[in-house]
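This entry is listed below:
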Amino acid sequence: MNRVSAFAAGAVGVVAVALLVGAVVPGALADPTDDGPTRPGHVSIAEVNIAPGEVTGQSAVLQVETRLDHRGNPTSNVSVLFRAVDAESGMVATTQRVDVGSLEDEGERPVRANLSVERQGGYRIETVVYRDAQRIDTGGRQVSGLSALTPDGARTAVRFTEAEALPPLSFSIAEGGDNRTTLDVQASLTNNGDAPSEDLRVTLILRQAESNIVAARTDVDVGTIQSLRTETAGAELTVPAGYNYYIDAVLWKDGVMVDTARSAANLDPSETISVNETRRDVELEVSDFEDGPGRDRPRPTGEPQATAGSDTSAPGFGVVVALVALLGAALLARRRSA
């Protein structure tokens, strides 16, 4: 065997051994273009949006949307944890975890959750993004004033009318008397919405202006008010005569207070009040506001009454002064006679 043949046989042997090792030991022959395992792309929170959902008398659903921004290579095993933390106590009120899965395309992807919380106070809504059970980003928003959310069953576009020609509350004298006056109170309501509103109720309250005593109160069922229509609801209320009153009206729907209005009724001819006027002290007879046979008793006039045996004449020389004068004269006459 010459040298060339020996060299060729050795080269063939080396190649054969290499192929055998590559077949027996996986990965022994690595691809020179392989950079190793693919690194996952970048995922972060772009923004967090919160909107009210279903609202009841005690709870409210917060619809939370977190938008994830994905860049680079595909990212797998992504999840988002949503939680509501009480703003006052710092305690976690509720949590919800959403599995996102894999993010393949670059861009933003919305992830949504519904968090049910009590309809009061405020909360911090936090979102935490995980990849392979590792936290990679956090975000959040603050919400407050949940008690102002109107329950679904009480939502209405009806409000007390606000117009110069048609005030929200008006009254007239239905019947007058020395001790009692009956007022015909009318409340004006306008539906500013696009749909009819029904099951409405108005409470009318008359309060004595200076004492805040409730003199009369009644509830009036309104019924249905069509879209863009104005209706009135009223009742007659009897109160003690000669006093000034605030007229308060409360609009209710499904047991929830929707709107309020106030006016003034001046039944005292000598004094007047307005809605924004500062209260002052006046004479008040509580018995005028009591129910029962004695409620029509006349009010005291405030004039002092003379008692039996009282003397209303001007003071002068009485009997005692006369006796003193006589005693003095007797002493003087005795001195002269001595």
Notes: The chain has two domains: 42-148, 153-295. The chain is about 10% helix and 45% strand. The mean pLDDT is 81.
